[in-house]
Amino acid sequence: MTLLGGFHHVKLPISDVHKSLEWYRRVLGLDVAIEFVEDGVLRGVALTDAGRTLMLALREEPDRAAGWSGFDPVALAVPTLHALRAWSDHLDELQVRHSGIAEGSVGWLIGGITDPDGIEIRLYTQQERL
C-alpha cells in the first residue's frame, strides 16, 4: 500500500467569494495562493498560511454553503496552548465571536468561530493536555 502524506487541501462551499475571502484573510491571516476564474468571474480561491503548512479552498456554491451552516468541518492545528491564547486575543481584538479556550479530547481548542456562511472553524492544539 502506498503511504499518504496528509491533506493536500480542504474545500468549503461559500455563498460569496469576495465576502468570504475578506473574512478568511482578516480573521485567519490566510493569503491567496490560487484564484479560480470562470468566464472572467472569480468563483473560488485556494488560501494558504504564511508558512504554507495548509491549503484551504473556497468555492462559490451558495446552495451547498447554506447546508453547511452550523457544521464544523475543519479544525486548524495550533502548535501550543500559548499560541492558542494568542489566537484568542487576536479574535477578541477583531471582535470575532468564539467559545473561548476549552479542554478538548486531546488538547485545547477554540470553537464557535463562524465564517460569513455560518460554517464553524475550530482551532485545536497539537499539544496534549498536561
TrEMBL record:
Lineage of producing organism: Bacteria, Bacillati, Actinomycetota, Actinomycetes, Streptosporangiales
Name of the protein in question: Ring-cleaving dioxygenase MhqA
Limits of the VOC domain: 6-126
Record SUPFAM superfamilies: Glyoxalase/Bleomycin resistance protein/Dihydroxybiphenyl dioxygenase
Superkingdom in the source lineage: Bacteria
Matches recorded under Pfam families: Glyoxalase
Gene Ontology molecular function terms on file: dioxygenase activity
InterPro entries given in the database record: Glyas_Bleomycin-R_OHBP_Dase, Glyas_Fos-R_dOase_dom, VOC_core
Broadest EC class assigned to this enzyme: oxidoreductase
Alphabetized CDD domains for the sequence: VOC
Keywords: Dioxygenase, Oxidoreductase
